[in-house]
TrEMBL record:
Protein name according to UniProt: Flagellar hook-associated protein 3 FlgL
Flagellar hook-associated protein 1 D2-like domain segment(s): 200-278
GO biological process, alphabetically ordered: bacterial-type flagellum-dependent cell motility
Main location class: other
Gene3D superfamilies named among the record's database cross-references: f41 fragment of flagellin, N-terminal domain (1.20.1330.10)
NCBIfam families according to UniProt: flagell_flgL
Annotated ranges, domain Flagellin N-terminal: 5-141
InterPro entries assigned to the protein according to its UniProt record, in alphabetical order: Flagell_FlgL, Flagellin, Flagellin_N, FlgK_D2-like
Keywords: Bacterial flagellum, Cell projection, Cilium, Flagellum, Secreted
A GO term from the CC aspect: extracellular region
Localization: Bacterial flagellum; Secreted
Superkingdom of source: Bacteria
Length: 400
């Protein structure tokens, strides 16, 4: 086999060698000027793909941080609103205790009623608090309009019962603000488990002092009615209007039956009745309205005064239960704020890990790159020197 070596071929090989060395040197110069090891994806396809994934993960962490900031703002405003609601409830409790003083005159009760009306309006404003961005705190996920409004003299709730879940770290969610239906509307009456009341038509002076579940296993969760057949005797009826017990009334003594008990004072009249059963629900606004109505009743007879006292006692119990619900709501919001802090720590730890990995993949090893640059520059200069020498040579000269 014959091989043909030409001057043109040697010339072209030298050119190709110099171009390849120039390309490598230019690539190293790009690395040095940018400080990045990966100038293009072809430098290391696997590392480049991994780096893109880490960039996305860091961007996602940033988005989680924005989510956390938004929900933290809303939860902080919820805490402030609920603190103000708690203060208002405490003031209502003070005024109710004050109004329950039998020596208080009608004018004083009307003055208390006036203050309660102002508190009522303030509570409604707090329930319609916004987050500063036009979204209502207590509207659930339907937070584009005011969730509570007065209609027909009563407060109605137009939001929904949903609670938004916000992702604040990878696979870590926190709950947004509570819906107003849970904070202001569906509040348990009585002690939260059982409730009792005097019938509205009572004509005696029987005063409901206390009630409770005394034996949980004996109480079946039913409703019962104590009806006085005379001033000193009574019958107890179940929800089917069947008599389950009878007894003689003693002022201040407890009447126990079916796992529950009631304590009455004063002197009931024949036909008066008292009911006890599972706690119902009532909104805080209705509780304040009932309290205002009782204070504005201007009682004159002993029976009317007793009815007002029973109404005030009922309000005291309902307000106390509502205060407990506010504490629970604040605790729930506090737990979410604590979770946000935990998520922030997790995001920070993940971000440091991702950034360290990205640095390993992308950042240039300056000592290695500078050494390589010098070596490649020397190799290029050598190739250029050889090329210049080759230009003065000819195969004909070598053959001669």
């Amino acid at each position: 086999m014959n091989y043909r070596i030409s001057t043109g071929m040697m010339y072209q090989q030298s050119i190709n060698t110099m171009l390849a060395k120039q390309a490598k040197l230019a690539h190293t110069q790009q690395q040095l000027s940018s400080g990045q090891k990966l100038v293009t994806a072809k430098d290391d396809p696997v590392a480049a793909g991994t780096a893109v994934g880490l960039d996305r993960a860091l961007a996602e962490l940033e988005r989680f941080g924005m989510n956390a900031n938004a929900v933290q703002n809303r939860l902080g405003l919820q805490e402030s609103a609920l603190t103000s609601v708690g203060d208002a409830m405490a003031r209502i409790n003070e005024l109710t205790v004050q109004a329950n003083n039998s020596a208080l005159g009608d004018d004083s009760r009307l003055a208390i009623s006036t203050e309660l009306k102002a508190i009522y309006a303030g509570l409604l404003d707090l329930a319609n608090s916004t987050d500063g961005a036009g979204r209502y705190l207590f509207g659930g996920t339907d937070d584009g309009s005011a969730p509570l409004a007065i209609s027909g003299g009563n407060v109605i709730y137009s939001g929904n019962q949903s609670q938004r879940q916000v992702e604040v770290a990878p696979d870590m969610f926190v709950s947004d603000t509570l819906p107003g239906s849970e904070v202001f509307m569906r509040l348990r009456t009585g002690d939260g488990r059982v409730d009792a009341r005097a019938a509205a038509g009572n004509t005696g002076t029987g005063l409901l002092m206390d009630f409770s579940v005394t034996n949980a296993s004996a109480w079946n969760g039913g409703s019962y009615r104590i009806e006085f057949t005379a001033a000193d005797s009574y019958q107890i009826y179940d929800s089917n209007n069947a008599v389950i017990a009878t007894g003689a009334y003693e002022k201040g003594a407890s009447i126990a039956f079916a796992g529950v008990q009631m304590k009455l004072d004063g002197q009931p009249a024949a036909g008066d009745s008292f009911e006890i059963g599972p706690s119902g629900t009532r909104d805080i606004f209705a509780t304040v309205q009932n309290l205002i109505a009782a204070l504005e009743s201007n009682p004159t007879t002993d029976a009317e005064k007793t009815a007002m006292q029973n109404a005030l006692q009922t309000s005291l119990r309902d307000v106390a239960t509502a205060q407990g619900r506010m504490i629970d709501a604040r605790a729930s919001g506090g737990a979410q704020l604590a979770a946000i802090d935990t998520a922030a720590n997790l995001r920070e730890a993940n971000a440091i890990t991702y950034q360290d990995t990205l640095s390993t993949l992308r950042d240039l090893d300056w000592a290695e790159a500078i050494g390589r640059y010098n070596l490649e520059n020397t190799a290029l200069q050598a190739a250029q020197t050889v090329f210049m020498q080759m230009q003065s040579l000819s195969l004909f000269k070598l053959m001669g």
